Amino acid sequence: GGARLTEGVCASPECCSHMKQAMSSIKVECVKCEKFRVGESPLWEEKEGTLLFVDVTGQKVCRWNPASNHLQTVSGDAPVGSVALQKSGSYVVAMGNTFGILKWHDRSITTIAHVDEDKPNNRFNDGKVDPGGRFFAGTMA
To answer: Strands 123-129 and 30-33: what pairing?
Structure first.
């Protein structure tokens, strides 16, 4: 019975030890201790065998390879709310008040659309792809 989590990425060693104690029926293991500010929006990339996630206030998209324990990051110029896979192999990023295309090979993010330009305190928060392949992302103030 019950879920079993055997790997995870956390922000600090303190976080890991607290989680181990709090979840006695689930095995939680810190596999990469990094100093992320707000890690969110995890997404498993089956083709590459990597875990994508964002560091919202650190303004980064991160990609961790559990086989090599290698972590790659791409920095943006605004808080990153979420990331999604594209069939082409690139990624869609909801960042600040823009949608962008992220390409890992050259670590570039190209803006493709702006939203809420009349609302300077708004930014993207979270987003997911629906079964039809459309990327939905919400904003917050």
So the answer is: unpaired
